[in-house]
UniProtKB/TrEMBL annotation:
Residues 135-346 form the Aminoacyl-transfer RNA synthetases class-II family profile domain. One of its GO terms (molecular function) is ligase activity. Its cofactor is Mg(2+). Binds 2 magnesium ions per tetramer. This is Phenylalanine--tRNA ligase alpha subunit.
């Protein structure tokens, strides 16, 4: 326990002077008026009306004054404190109202804006693209056919004049399934659907064949901006009497125009496929530079200065294929073509990376979703 406080002499304690009191009150009122938000006002309250504020100290000292001085000092301190707490309350009210008004503006929700509660996503450009291609041919009276992606080796190769030892088999980097003696592959192209169509439909009743076959194909390729072990092709097959290379060229020109616009035609370059003879690579005229290869700013970036863009393969169906598939090659002839759907869409939409087609990002598909 500490001893009695011998320094304490109430008679000598003087009341806070009226001038000091006024200064403390005015400082408090000025600080209150200067507070611009509730946070600041809270700090002002602590400084000027809190337990340790000059006015609170002045109030505490009243008790220590001689009795005759207490009344007057009490009045003065009371008035000063009253003025401060009134000002605090008034400022508090103003700042609260401002705060509320600001929140109402900042957090306003326009309930009349259109909403999308159930985003429906988009159809994949490969789906809509394959449908668009099919529609172009259906409009010419063709049929659409599909076949399995896991295919008999015989239909993927042998029926198409690619015997077991044919050197061209190595051109198609094949995924084989196990066991090997079942002779089943992941189809390397859509051409087995040609063989299936001829074998199942036949032409013995005189009905010609005009089919397009869009579908997924597989090759042991790297996965990069221009290659993928899984991609899509569309195959076309026409079998009728008197079919020639001219019909093939006309059909592909029409396809190109429908797909890419007026003036986009094709050219043929001699090539080799075991299932067609003669065979050709088909190129599209570059739809950016229109075959010129450059523009005012230099080499055309789309065709890399070539003026043409590789599109696919085509030719007159090899009579050996017709024979293998039960079609009278003396009476009938036909043409066939096959091209990458992915590549076609990349050109059509200016896509730079093939992988965007396969990665299933909904932001990508939604952008194409409205195109039907
Ligand atoms: N199937 C060939 C390929 O994938 C393309 C093709 C189809 C060529 C039809 C000629 C005729 O490379």
């Amino acid at each position: 326990m500490s001893g009695p406080n011998t320094d304490y002499d109430p008679v000598e304690v003087a009341a806070v002077s009226p001038a000091e009191l006024e200064a403390a009150r005015d400082a408090a009122l000025a600080a209150i008026a200067a507070a611009t938000d509730l946070e600041q006002l809270k700090a002002v309250r602590t400084d000027h009306a809190g337990d340790r504020s000059p006015l609170a100290l002045a109030n505490r000292e009243i008790g220590a004054l001689p009795p005759q001085a207490r009344k007057e000092a009490g009045q003065r301190v009371g008035q000063a404190r009253g003025a401060v707490s009134k000002a605090l309350a008034a400022r508090q009210e103003v700042l609260e109202a401002e705060h509320e008004a600001r929140i109402l503006v900042e957090e306003a929700v326009d309930v009349t804006l259109p909403t999308d509660h159930d985003p429906v996503g988009g159809r994949h450009p490969l789906t809509t693209g394959a449908e668009l291609i099919a529609d172009i041919f259906v409009a010419m009276g063709w049929e659409v056919a599909e076949g399995p992606v896991i295919e008999a080796e015989w239909l993927n190769f042998d029926a198409l004049n690619l015997g077991p030892d044919h050197p061209a088999r190595t051109m198609q980097d094949t995924f084989w399934t196990e066991p090997a003696d079942h002779h089943v592959v992941l189809r390397t192209h859509t051409s087995p659907v040609q063989a299936r169509t001829m074998l199942t439909r036949g032409v013995s009743d005189g009905a010609p064949i005009y089919v397009v076959c869009p579908g997924r194909v597989f090759r042991t390729d790297e996965y990069d901006a221009t290659h993928s072990p899984m991609f899509h092709q569309v195959e076309g097959l026409a079998i009728d009497e008197g079919i020639s290379m001219a019909h093939l060229k006309g059909t592909l020109d029409h396809f190109a125009t429908q797909m890419f616009g007026e003036g986009i035609t094709t050219r043929f370059r001699p090539s080799y496929f075991p299932f067609t003879e003669p065979s050709a690579e088909v190129d599209l005229i570059c739809f950016v530079c229109r075959g010129v290869g450059h523009d005012d700013t230099g080499q055309c970036r789309t065709c890399r200065g070539e003026g043409w863009i590789e599109w696919g393969g085509c030719g007159i169906v090899n009579p050996r294929v017709l024979q293998a598939c039960g079609v009278d090659s003396e009476r009938y002839s036909g043409f066939a073509f096959g091209m990458g759907i992915d590549r076609t869409l990349m050109f059509r939409h200016g896509l730079e990376d093939l992988r965007t087609l396969f990665e299933g990002d909904v932001r990508f598909t939604t952008a194409f979703g409205s195109e039907l």
